[in-house]
Amino acid sequence: MNEIFGIPLPALLGQLMLGLVNGSFYALLSLGLAVIFGMLHIINFAHGALYMMGAMFSWLAMVYLGIGYWRSLLLVPLFVGAIGIVIERFLLQWIYKLDPLYGLLLTFGVALIIGGGFRYVFGSSGQPYSIPPELGGAVDLGFMFLPKYRMWVIVASLTICFATWFMIEKTRLGAYLRAGTENPGLTQAFGINVPVMVMLTYAFGTALAAFAGVLAAPTTQVSPLMSSNMIITVFAVVVIGGMGSIMGSIITGLGLGVIEGLTKVFYAQASSTVVFIVMVIVLMVRPAGLFGKEK
User: Fold this and answer.
1) What is the Cα–Cα distance from 162 to 173, expressed in whole angstroms?
2) How far is Cα 55 from Cα 97, in angstroms, rounded to an integer?
3) Which of 153, 164, 201, 284 keeps 20 to 30 A from 147, CA to CA?
4) What residues pair up with 136 in beta bridges, in sequence order?
5) Are 40 and 106 in contact (CB under 8 A)?
6) CATH class for the domain made up of 3-285
7) Nearest to 294, CA basis, from 252, 242, 251
């Protein structure tokens, strides 16, 4: 059987794999949003700008400092995480007790400032970022040639995603984080420095966004505009999975990437809107999202 619903099987399987690649990016980006919202109750609209910064800084490191991809994959998230610490200490810490809408508006303003600053300095045109030689070429899967770099994206994204879930849900550090957000006064009474934990949590979320940006750099044109479409889709993923749900973000991101890939095969015109159609249906049936907690 070489066809399914009139679609050649190789084309269908190829889109499934490409959908899994896109889903890996969705999962990694939505994970950072879920961590920040789940732990800090901040709707971090600056996440897309931080993702863009990860890609831009990796390109700048390559062009001006001669720092290659592998070192950028380690250093750039740390650098952007440090910027996240500055944002949290000087801006966000003053609004934690206010309505979450204030956090959304503040981070939206931060995103505009970051995006505008990069466009002013570097313009809007895209810049190429070469794939590391070790990950060049493709692997023959029988039904398609899958670039090695895209396979690396899937492996790296899923590894980071599930390692983060394990740390937050299954370790003592994760228990401290959850306790610090649910009852900061009591947690502080046990000698745990809650403000530092909150600061590091936001830094970790921003580092995840930057890590995704470095991963994305060789697959797209690096520019200050690269986050525009991606971040809207990622917010939809977080809403579908359930705001603050770590596992929900991972599973939903991967699933929606696959659904988007299949839609390109069966009805390409709807591929850019299928995520939002799913979001509307899910919110009608379960307003808290698939993995969210009903209040």
Assistant:
1) 16
2) 33
3) 164
4) none
5) no
6) mainly alpha
7) 242
For residues 210 and 221, is the Cβ–Cβ distance under 8 A?
Answer: no
Structure token pair of residue 264? 């390109």
Return the amino acid letter for 266.
Answer: F
Q: Whole-prediction pTM value?
A: 0.92
Q: What are phi and psi of 139, to 5 degrees?
A: -110, 135
Query: Which residue bears the tokens 């307003």?
Result: 287
Could you give the CA distance from residue 222 to residue 217 in angstroms, rounded to a whole number? 6
Which value, to the nearest 10 degrees, does the dihedral of the CA atoms of residues 147, 53, 91, 203 take? 40
> pLDDT tens digit string along 18-43?
888 889 989 999 998 988 887 788 88
For 48-52, 226-230, 261-265, which range has the lowest pLDDT when averaged over its residues? Answer: 226-230
Check if the beta carbon of residue 129 is closer than 8 Å to that of residue 222.
Answer: yes
| pLDDT at residue number 295 | 57
**Where do the domains of the chain lie?**
3-285
CB of 59 closer than 8 Å to CB of 115: no
Apex 61 CA angle, 68 and 220, nearest 5: 75
Distance CA 230, CA 245 (A): 20
Contacts of 70 (CB under 8 A, 6+ apart): 132
Q: How far apart are CA 75 and CA 78, in angstroms?
A: 5
The answer to whether 128 touches 222, Cβ cutoff 8 Å, is yes
